[in-house]
C-alpha cells in the first residue's frame, strides 16, 4: 500500500461519501470530513484565510494543515511566470514558494503557462500543475496532502525559490516566523530577501521542539547544561552562521535538547544583560547518553533610559550609539537594554542637528541619561530619502515600517519605500510630529538603467505585488510604463540618461535625476548644456522651502517638481540669484548676482565649495578652514553675462565614523538663467 495501513484504508472506506465533482463548484468554508483531505478551487471569501490567497486560487486542506496554491494567471514574485505556486501555508508564513524545474538546457525555472487540476484518491488529495517552460519543454509537479496529514509533499521538484514574509529569520536551513518552515533540504542561496532551498520533497510547519522528530538525521547532538538568568541559547556552525535557537525557561536556565549536528559553538543571551560569549561545544558521540554539561552565565541586568529633545524641549527622533552599538529611538525616548557595566555614547538626529555626547556611567537596573540637540539647518529645509529598500525587495526581509522608523531616527522626514521589481508597501501616519511622511514606490532595474516612481499601491493579486513589468522594453517605453507623463513622480539614474539618447528625442521626460556620487555630475552638466533641467536627488535629498511643522506632503512634492532640491549626503547649500531662491528658471534678470549659503553641523566636514556653470566650468570656489560655525559660508558672486545656468556644490573627502559612512557632499539643482 502506498500510504497508511490496512486499518486506515478500512476507516476511509467507511467514511461518508463526498461528491468530488460537486464540491468543486460549491462554497464549502469548513472541511466536510476531518478524516479526509480536500482539493478545490476557492469559490467564496469564506473559504479564505488571512493570507494573500484570493478567490479563484486553489485550496488544499486537511484537519491539520491548510495550503493555498495560486491560480493559473500569474505568480506573485516573478513577472512573466504562471501561477501554480504556493502562496500560503498555515502556521508557517511565506509570501510565495516557487518550485524550480530544469529546462532543456538544465537551467532551473518556473513555467510560463500552466494547467491546474485537483486530484483525490483513497490516500489523500492534491493539486496537479502541468506547465510549459520558456523553451517549450513541459513538466509537471503535484502538491499533495495525505488524508489527515500535516506535511505537504511535493512531487516533481526538490528545489524552491522562497519569498518569506517580512522580518522572517533564517536559522540554519529553516525559516522562522512564528513556527518554523521545515524541509529535509539545505539552503542553497540567501540574497538577504529571497532564498533558494534544495534537496527536499516536502514542507512542514513545526515548532522547535518538533525538529528532532521531524529531522532525526540532522538533530542528533545531545546538548545539556544551564545558563543562569538566560533567555535563549544559540548554536552556530564553522562559518559562524547561527543555525539553531532554543528558548530557555526559569531563572536557572536549564536546557537539554538535540542540536544540529553541524553546530560547533554555543552562546547564551538575555535581554538587558551581556551575553555569555561564544564557546566551543564539547566533543560528542551519537551513542553518548551522558553528554558533558555546559555551564554558562550572562552579565548582570542593566537598562538605560534615554530621552532626547530639541532646543524647545520637544521629543526628537534620534539614533543613539552606546558602546559602539546603535539604537533607533523613534519617539525621541526609550529604554536601551545594554546590560550592566560602564559605557558611554552619543546621540544624533541626522545632518540637520548637532550631536551630543552621552557621558560615561556605570549602568545599573534603572540608569538614565539624556541630551538636547540643536537644529543647525534652516527650519524650512526637509530631508528626504527616495530609495528606502524594504520587503519584498529581493535583498531584504526588513519591513517597510521598520525601515521608515530607522530613517526617521536619522533625520529623514519624507521617505519612499522601494523594492526591485516589487511594490514595497508601507503604512505610516502623516499626523504625528515624530512620524515621517511615507509613500509607497516601486523600482525597475532595467538593462538601460534604473527607474524609480511613486505612488503605487501594493496588489497581491498581480505579479510583483502590482509593480510594472519592464522586461523587454526600451528606455523610453519602460519610463512611460513606470508612470512618466502621468500622475506619478519618476526618477532615473545616469545609466538611463546615457541609454535614452539625446533628451530632445525623449517622448516623455522624468521628473528627477538620481545622482549617486559626484562622479555622475558630468552627465548632469551635459543635460543642462542640452537645455534639459531635471531635479536632482541623491542618497538623501534636501527640499528647500519645506517646513514639515506647518506644511503638508503635497508641499514636498511641489518642491521636488519645482526643482527646489539638493542631492546630498549631508551639507545644506542654499543658492539664489538676484535675491530670489532656488527654482527652475530665472530668466533675463540683471545684474546677476548669486548668493550662496552653506550650512552643516560642526561634526560634519565640509572642505570645498564651488559654483559651476556650462561644461562644468568653475565660476567661483572656496576652500574652507576648520569649522567654527554651523554656517560654513555666506558669500555673493557676480555672474558672467549670458550664463545659461549655475549649480552649487560643496564636499569633503573626509568621513566621520559612526555618524557618516560616506564623505559628505551636496549638489543643488540648476538655476536656469536663459532659454535657448
Describe it.
The protein is mainly beta. It folds into five domains: 6-206, no CATH class; 214-297, Immunoglobulin-like, CATH 2.60.40; 304-372, Immunoglobulin-like (Sandwich); 382-568, TIM Barrel (Alpha-Beta Barrel), CATH 3.20.20; 571-676, Macroglobulin (MG2) domain (Immunoglobulin-like), CATH 2.60.40. It is 9% helix and 39% strand. It is built from eight helices and 51 strands. The strands form eleven sheets. Strands 33, 34, 35, 41, 42, 46, 47, 49, 50 and 51 form a ten-stranded mixed beta sheet that branches. The chain has an eight-stranded antiparallel beta sheet with strand order 8-9-10-11-18-15-14-13, with no helix packed on it. A hairpin with a 7-residue loop joins strand 30 (341-348) and strand 31. The model is unreliable at 1-17 and 429-434 (pLDDT under 50).
Give a brief outline of the structure.
The protein has five domains: 6-206, no CATH class; 214-297, Immunoglobulin-like (Sandwich), CATH 2.60.40; 304-372, Immunoglobulin-like (Sandwich), CATH 2.60.40.1120; 382-568, TIM Barrel, CATH 3.20.20; 571-676, Immunoglobulin-like. Helices cover 9% and strands 39% of the residues.
Structure characteristics:
676 residues; mainly beta; Immunoglobulin-like; 5 domains; 10-stranded mixed sheet; 8-stranded antiparallel sheet; 8 helices; 51 strands; disordered N terminus
